[in-house]
Each structure stands twice: as C-alpha cells, then as structure tokens.
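Appendix B. One record, verbatim.
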Amino acid sequence: MAVLAMKKINICAMKKDRKAVLEKLQAMGAVEINTSGEEDEIFKKINTTSQRSKYEKRVQNTDAALEILQQYVPEKTSLFSALEGKKEVEEEKLQEIIASRGKYNLMVKNIQELNKEIANCKAGINKCEVAIEGLKPWLNMDIPINTTGTKNTDVIIGTMGPGLTEDIISQMVLNRQPELSGFDVTVISTDKDQTCIFVICMKQTSAKLEEALRAEGFTRISYFSKRTPEGKVEKYKKDIKEYEERIEKLKTRLSELAEDRDNIRLLSDYYRIRADKYEVLGGLLQSRSTFVITGYILQRDEEEIVNELNDEFSLMVETEDIPEDETAPVKLENPKVFASAEGVLESFGLPGRGEMDPTTPMSIFYIFLFGLMLSDAAYGLIIFLACFIILKKFPKMSDGMAKSLRLFMYCGLSTLIWGILFGGYFGDLITVVSKTFFHHEIVIKPLWFAPLDNPMKMLVFSLLFGLIHLFGGLALKGYMCIKKKDFVGLISDVVSWFMLITGLVMMLMPTELFASIAQMSFQFSPAVKTLSYVLAAGGALIIVVMSGRDKKNPALRFALGLYDIYNLTGWLSDLLSYSRLLALGLATGVIAQVVNQMGSMVGDSVFGVIVFILVFMIGHTFNLAINMLGAYVHTCRLQYVEFFGKFYEGGGIPFNPFKENTKYVDIKEEK
C-alpha cells in the first residue's frame, strides 16, 4: 500500500558517449527520460526524424514478413499460447543477429517479393476463372472466336437480350431493315441474362445487318482469340494449373525461409529498440560537445543507477527531490495479494500528488464483494482452480495478465467461502440429483443462511456491507487529512459525516419500518437513543457551520452548509446501490436452480442422465460466465463510484522508464 518515492535525475555527459549512455539507460530500464526541455542559445535538440522513420519502416517490414510466414507457413500453437509470454534470448544472440542483419534484411525482402509474386499468381488465377465463366455460354460454338468471315461473307458474333430465338431475332432485323436478305442467325445459347448468337451474311449487307442488330441491343463479343471457345477455356485451365504450381513452389521457398522466423523476430525487436532510442535522442538537449538528460528514477534505485553510470562513463550525474510544483510519475508497490488489484485501480486512475495508494483496502473490498455477488461454492472452486493452474503452468506470462488472473483466483476463493456460507453448490444440484436419480433427498444446509429462502435478510446485510464499504472510503479520507495535518478538515468533512450517518442509522434501527424490512427488532435504552440524537444533531451542526469555512460571508457559509446537508440524498443513493449485491447473488442461485430443474425433467433413466449432463454443462457454463461478468462489472462500479467517490480523485501519470520495449523476446542482459 505505497506510492514509491521518486527522485529527479540530471545527467551531463560528453557527446561522444551519447550512444553508449543511451544504450546503457535503455538496458537498465530504470530511468524515465523527460524530453520536454526547452532549447536555448547553447543547448539545442537535433532532428532524428529520418533515422527514427528508417528503423520504424524496418520494423514494419520485418513484422509484415512475419505475418506473411504465418499466413503461408503457420506455426503450431496451443490454445494457451498467448499466456506463454515472451521467449528469453541472450544478449550474445542479439549481437549475432545485429552482425548478420544484412543477411536477414535480404531475407525479409525476399519474403515480401515472394508474397507479391503469389499475389500476382492469385490475381492471374482469378482473371482466368472470370474469363472461363464468361466463355461458358459460347462452348457450343465450334469456330475460332476471332472468325470474321470468308471471301464473300461476314461473321457477326455477340450477345442480345435474354430469351430470344432465331426466328425472333430474324424478325427483329427485318422489322428494322425490310430489304435485307441472305443472312442466317444461329443461337449458340440463351439464359436469363443474355442470348449468344452467331450471324453469317453477305459482305455487302453486313453493315446494315449489324446496325439493325445494335438497334435491338446487340453487343459484339469482347473476347479475341484464334482458338474456339472450348480451346480457349482449356488454355485458361492450363494457365490456372501453371499458376497453382508456381504458387506451390513459392510456398516451398517460404517454408525454407520460415526456418529463420525466430531470427527475424529478434531483428524486428532490435529495430524497435533502435527506433525508441532515436525518438528519445531527438528530445535531448545537446551542445557542441555535451548533452543533457533529465528524468525520474525510483528513490530505491538511486544509489545503484548513480554508481553504474559513474563506473562506466565520465559524466556528471546528480539526483534531487522533485519540486512541489512539478508532477512526478507514479509507481505502486503492494504485497502480491493486493498487487493483483492494481489493474482495477489503474483503470480508474493512479494516485495524484499527495494522495495515498488505495490498492490494499480496495482489493480487500473487491474480493469480498465479488464473492458475495457470485456466491456459489462450486463456481468459486472452478474459478480458483482454473486461475491457479494457469498461473503455475505459464509463469512467464505478462505482468498485467498475471495480476488479473491472480485477482480472479482470490475472487474465486471468496466465492467458494460465500457459497459454503449460503449453501450453494451449482445451486441445489446435490438435492436435485439425489432426489431424481437416487430417490433419496439430500440437502446440504448453509453454514449461515440461504438468500433464496430469506431475501430480506440478505438485503439488510447487503446494505450493512455497503455502509461499511462507504465508511471505509470516508475513513481513508480522514487518514489523508491526518497525513496532511488538516485536522479542521478531519472534523468538518469526515468526523461530522460519521456522526450524522451513525446517528441516523441508530435512530432508524428501533423503528417498526426497520423491523418489518430486516425481520429483526432492536430496543435501545433511553441513553442510547439520546446518543443517536446527539450524534445526528452534532454532525449536522458541524456540517452546516464548517462546510463553507473558506467563505468570509456568514450568510453564504450557512447557505453552503445547508446545501451540503442535502448530500444525505447522495449517501442514500450510494447505499441503495449495494442492493445489487442481493440482486446478483439471487440471480446466480435462481438460474442455477432453473438449470437443475430443466435437466431433471426427463426423469430417472439412461436418457434422462444424458439429458441432465448436457443441460448441466451448457446451463451452468452460461450461468457462470454471465454472472461472473456481472460480478466483475458491478464490483468495479462499487469501487469507482461509491468507494472512490468518498476520498479519491486519481489522475496520476504512470512511471514509464526508457527501456527495451520488445514485442517478441525478452533480452537477458549479460552480467
């Protein structure tokens, strides 16, 4: 439960050592470099756009080559390959790739050229297939496509509208040109789109004949070949076969190149590192012979960083406290159990300057409330075991993924405990199975109570847990006031609300309204009743008097105080939000019971067992998935809105050290 202390670091070194110093800092991965410094007459920034663009382009090329290899020579990966994390590579191996980068650059180029050639072959195949489709209506024509006629005759080949016969076409021509004679129309084929025709006529009448045909929608064939349509189709099929054979040869060459896939990955990460270095280099202030680096480090790493830099380089390095008016980056450190919820906090926002890290209390409430919402022991055990096994099997997964799975593992454990308390094991599975298939009803009683049998009791406890959650947020606000030594704010903004809310709750508890809802009654002594009135009145008075304490006008202060009392409606709204604990808890149990009842409807038979197993697997998988999602979403909402709303603003900037941001491998630095 801590925001790690930060220090500001300033480095001044010789320009000749610039490359080595940056590479050292990048390998250390412990310094966040500030590139927002302003230029002056001596110190300027250099333009590294061209160098950075060159390496970014190489990153794009190598990644594109890897995608091509994956497309044509896919790697065999398991279902959980995304959890395996990056492979570790020795620094020596990286240096080998760097030394041979010319060879691998040529390999990347060859892969892209092969892919381009494959694309051209596929385009050729597509073109041939389109041509074959267009020639299908002409397959019955046994003369070359480019036939134009004989010495005394002309041949006209083309298409007209659908559904035409030879007589109809001839009549169309005569209607247009009654004097024409000596022509013959042959229909090659007709379909719903067109009629393919072959017309032979005398040379002296061909012009008028074609004019008449065009008037009726005639269009000459677009193909030109000395082959017959059937011969042309065979030629296209032969071309397709050649294209396919060519593609297979190109794929074989890609398969050979795929043997160096890991080396190409390492090359891509090398170029990625270089691009990042030039991006930082472009933001550094440099004189003719020196350069300056300013940035941030963790205070705990201060001595190690300073010593390493001084041992390897001739430079000046100093550290200092971060000025009050400067925004420092934020790095959290929590015990492993509580660190699992850091992702939830980061989704809302890291602590701002002067704020505490609320991860520990938030994670406790998160795990507690998640389990209460899901509240089925069997579901909890499944979640716990699944996350536990994955974490053990894939120890190198990304830090963010590991934290999320660890959080759900603890949430599964919480769900298991709540399920035992409420008596939920796949709903009422044990009761239904024993009664349906063994004809002897077995009921496992809850250790506490069954929410489905006593929903009002569940509602009361949901609101009670909600009040504890809200008071926890208010208590953290008080802690921050004490840390800042703002004791006036502690009394005015924290203690006053504790007094008012506690007093009102104590006043409500002995009433008939509370007894009817909670199904339990309380009888307080006159002294306790008086105490509740005193707490409520005292809290309200402090709020009215102190809420507008920064205003000098007494009337305005009083008005602001009265307005702040109106925030009671906000407290009521926040408290009622915790009724979702009841709603989601009941939803899990009700759906589980419905699934069990549906599965048992067929009865005690072999077929009934099969149906029950199928319904059980599908129904409970759906119930677990949908209610797990609901528990996650609503637990986050209770943290972000109700809990954080009492004390936390966030807005911190994450600590982002200059490091080797690789995509495919982790590079082990030589010690």
